[in-house]
Amino acid sequence: MKFKIKKKYLLRGIQAVSNAISPRPVIPILSGMKIDVMQSKIILTGSSSDITIQSHIQSNINGEEIISEISSGSIVLPVPHFPEIIKKLPKEFVEIKIEENFKTIIKSGEAVFTLFGQSSDEYPQIEINKNEEQQLFIKGNDLKTLIRQTVFAVSPMESRPILTGVNVTVENSLLTFTATDSHRLALRSVTLDSEDIEMDNIVIPGESLQELNKIIDGNEEIIQISVMNNQVLFYTDNIYFLSRLLSGNYPDTSRLIPNDSKTSLHISTKDLINTIERAALLSSRDQNNVIRLDTVDNNSIEISSYSPEIGNVQEKLEVISIQGEELKISFSSKYMLETLKSIESESVQIDFTGPMRPFIIKTPEDENILQLILPVRTF
Questions:
Q1: What stretch of H or E contains 9?
Q2: pTM for the full model?
Q3: Which of 44, 45, 79, 100 has the maximal Cβ count within 10 Å?
Q4: 195-243: pLDDT as tens digits
Q5: What domains sit in the chain, N to C, each tagged with a CATH number?
Q6: How many angstroms separate the CA atoms of 133 and 199, rounded?
Q7: Residue 37 near residue 102 (C-beta atoms within 8 A)
Q8: Residues with Cβ < 8 Å from 14, sequence gap 6 or more?
């Protein structure tokens, strides 16, 4: 087996695939990267117990020769050594040749490395099948938005495994991601171009989506999503990302969302973030960094926090508008900041239904985003 390849294309594929490789895998050979060389392309594969990533590098792209001097074969090379070597090579082209006993020679310019690989026969057979009956298409930037505005709200606790994932539903061409850790909820929807789409409700591990978000481009490129029995596949012409699905029934989160509000704030997102960050400096970590919000008059609120060991802070903040009843409410500054920073809007609308009821954070211009946070009882 041998081939010569442009370094930048090989490095791009290696970087994507490396996200799936664990330093302590369940099966030892999965600590390496599998390379399959064919006449038309090279396939790089990285896998763990949860996800598999494949990068397909075509030998010819838009008339440009990317791979040459090809002799077919397959091998597994050690990680992180193989990626680090490729990253440091001095020239535009890389030559890789496999000799007896899987000894691998890597050359670029005057640099020559020898790596000891493993037989790919020991690598688990990974079948990537596309289910055309349960398939949809989405732009890369829309998928990144769905992930970014929901995945932070999944539960880190394995006591309720289903809540460590994001619930994905499709209804009337509306693709919706929902995440909750039982103390907050993040919901984001995107309208798909296609009609008559059918897909079962699925729950994708939050960690899988975080890895997917690292490798997809935030552009108009179309990503296809295909759902199998217990797996979901995201793929383009060059990247395949396969993740296991979580089993079980995701809770009905619609009943958590209040239908009315008693107090409504319209406020600058940036100003609110900055004020909460200052208040959080003196909030008690033992009390989950709780801060308090009080409505003061028709155009301002007060954000405050208190720590018996450190001190206290109060800051008055002008808002765009306040409607409804006076309000005093306490909540986690961490949850609020994560929510506000995920929202790409100059201002937010916050609807409260009382000091001990969940409150909703929305954007005035987009009805497809909704965030919910439960308040904290303080004395």
A1: helix 7-18
A2: 0.92
A3: 45
A4: 777 788 999 999 999 999 999 987 889 999 999 889 999 999 899 999 9
A5: 2-122 (3.10.150.10), 135-253 (3.10.150.10), 257-373 (3.70.10.10)
A6: 8
A7: no
A8: 33, 44, 55, 82, 83, 86
